[in-house]
Amino acid sequence: MHFIGTGGEQLRFGFVLPVKIGKAHRRNLLRRRMKEILRAAFPRIRAGRDIVFAVRRDEDESFSELEEKMLYLLSSRDLLKEEPR
Known about the structure:
It is globular and about 35 Å long. The protein contains two helices and three strands. The mean pLDDT is 90. Helix 1 crosses helix 2 (63-76). It is α+β, with helices and mostly antiparallel strands. The protein is 38% helix and 19% strand. The chain has a three-stranded mixed beta sheet with strand order 1-3-2, with no helix packed on it. The protein has a single domain (2-76), classed as Ribosomal Protein S5, domain 2 (2-Layer Sandwich). Strand 2, helix 1 (24-41) and strand 3 form a beta-alpha-beta unit.
């Protein structure tokens, strides 16, 4: 995952899935799952960033495993807001 601060209030996402991941339907499935995970986490993500997720290899993982990995990446780079207690 790569990101850059834009200084504004806009938050944009990009996805890079190379052809070696599989056929188009597999890449589209992964892209749709990643979009849904980000849609649910959108209020928790800090604004003013352009974030690109680059998938390097295809692993057979469930939706929850993919969600866990993506949220870990976001939190490890301090892109998630603090959760209210």
